[in-house]
Design brief:
Structural class: alpha/beta
CATH architecture of the largest domain: 2-Layer Sandwich
Radius of gyration: 25 Å
Low-confidence stretches: none
Oligomer: single chain
């Protein structure tokens, strides 16, 4: 991978070193200067008793605020910068760089999952290998300015995908990055609307909640033109408060989904959105709903399950999301009866492979006649089969590749089988993503159809072998979940 694009894919945890210099709120200016001098530090993070950052003191703070006016025994609370911006270990490095550039910070404390400081990023060191072209691209993906800025971010995704494809970055890595950008768009819209609701008299959220995305977004596998699949998980609240609490979240859901549509994430045609009460529930209601789905096993409910099982949080109280994930995983693990029903609902999703390296092509849709629908005839059956095996085994991961890796680690997938399926997923994803980039470049709406004639002979051979591997997996699934013998 070229250095010009590597920064897009790095996470903060891939970059940072050891723990930073820290001090408590009871420290004095003399003590802080002593630590910075002895350890040759350009900044010290001020932490509370739980090691959570509450401020930061930099060389500039010492010069600007202390050199001519502060007593050496003055408490650090008087000179530190607070509150302090932070970033999580799992965030992308380019987000950290842009946040520092936007706010004029040289340093950014890094926190772990519990909010404790564990590292410190220096903007100049992080930018050392970044070209001017790369920084322009990063700025395009992290614009401010409300809805107009977010619309520009969404539009910049195609150029980023094209650049990364040209530098041989794997399609799943690109899709993970696109998903991250879309998740950030969700989070920024929600944060903006929360501020608007409070300023307009609606008040703060009446209960803690989490915004979740489902489907490809939950798996980290967004392509270039996903629609919305989202929902809310709310903390439990008294039944007699339902009307006013639900009214508040309906208002937020309507604003969020409308803004997402406006910036280029269109409304879900199947109404899998937080505006639909089916996808807006308290944690207890969600548990009851999933239990009901697992017992009744009606076709419409099974379709909802297919979408739901891949959920991930993009904003809010992650505890709610983790709790629901744990409940769902435990409920479905080993539930052969339910999973057989889920298989039956998905069973007609055959691959597009035919004899002698030929492919099933579209006949009815005149716009794509003669082309192969690689999502419906390639990715979908693979994703569904891997999901079924993972649910049966109680695997709580959501991305297809991470599920495959865990299945292989448990010897549920053989080593060769895993390698073939991983290669199939990567190749089909690459062909689809490349096609969508070409569609957008030509001014067309991205599609899932690929003309066989546009593929090289080698690409067609690999595609045929990839679909053959998916077919073999489908036969195994048919035997294990459908009782069919081949």
């Amino acid at each position: 991978m070229a250095a010009s694009t590597e920064l897009y894919l790095k996470r903060v945890k891939d970059y940072v070193g050891g723990p930073p210099g820290t001090a408590s709120l009871v420290s004095t200016l003399r003590q802080i200067v002593g630590v910075m001098t002895t350890d040759k530090l350009s900044a010290v993070v001020i932490v509370d008793e739980d090691q959570r950052p509450v401020g930061i003191v930099t060389e500039q703070d010492i010069v600007r605020r202390a050199a001519f006016s502060a007593d050496a025994d003055q408490p650090v609370n008087d000179i530190m910068s607070a509150p302090v911006e932070t970033i999580g270990m799992e965030e992308r490095l380019y987000v950290a760089i842009t946040r520092m550039r936007r706010f004029g910070h040289r340093h950014l404390p890094v926190i772990d999952a519990d909010g404790r400081v564990c590292a410190l990023i220096d903007r100049y060191e992080a930018m050392a290998d970044a070209t001017a072209e790369l920084m322009t691209g990063i700025d395009d993906l992290t614009r401010g300015g409300g809805i107009d800025g977010l619309r520009e971010i969404k539009a910049a995704e195609a150029g980023l995908a094209s650049q990364l494809l040209a530098e041989n970055v794997s399609a799943p890595e690109i899709q993970a990055l696109l998903t991250h950008i879309n998740a950030d768009i969700h989070a920024r819209i929600v944060a903006a609307e929360l501020a608007s609701l409070e300023s307009e008299g609606w008040g703060p959220p009446p209960v803690p909640f989490s915004v979740i995305v489902l489907g490809s977004g939950g798996r980290g596998e967004n392509a270039l033109h996903p629609d919305q699949d989202n929902g809310f998980i709310l903390a439990d609240y008294p039944d007699d408060r339902h009307s006013d609490i639900d009214a508040w979240f309906i208002e937020l859901a309507e604003r969020m989904t409308r803004n997402l549509d406006d910036i280029g994430l269109p409304f879900c045609r199947g109404h899998v959105m937080a505006t639909n009460p089916l996808w807006r529930k308290s944690i207890s209601q969600w548990r009851d709903q999933i239990t009901h789905w697992s017992r009744r096993q009606k076709p419409a409910m099974l379709l909802h399950c297919d979408i739901f099982f891949d959920f991930q949080s993009v904003w809010g109280d992650a505890v709610l999301t983790d709790e629901l994930r744990g409940y769902t995983t435990q409920l479905i693990e080993g539930n052969q009866g339910f999973l057989r029903s889920l298989y039956a609902a998905d069973g007609d999703h055959a691959t597009a492979r035919r004899w002698f390296h030929r492919f099933a092509t579209e006949r009815k849709n005149t716009e794509h006649k003669g082309e192969v629908n690689l999502k419906l005839g390639g990715l979908l059956p693979l994703v569904e089969c891997i999901r079924l095996l993972s649910l049966l085994a109680g695997i709580d991961k959501t991305s297809t590749l991470s599920r495959m890796a865990e299945l292989a680690a448990r010897n549920i997938l053989g080593s060769d089988e895993h390698d073939y399926l991983k290669g199939a997923f990567e190749h089909i994803s690459f062909l689809l993503l490349r096609r969508q980039v070409a569609d957008l470049s030509a001014g067309n709406e991205p599609s899932n159809f690929v003309p066989p004639g546009a593929l090289s002979e080698r690409e067609r051979d690999i595609l045929s072998d990839s679909l053959k591997a998916v077919e073999s997996l489908r036969k195994r699934i048919a035997f294990e979940f459908g009782g069919e013998i081949f």
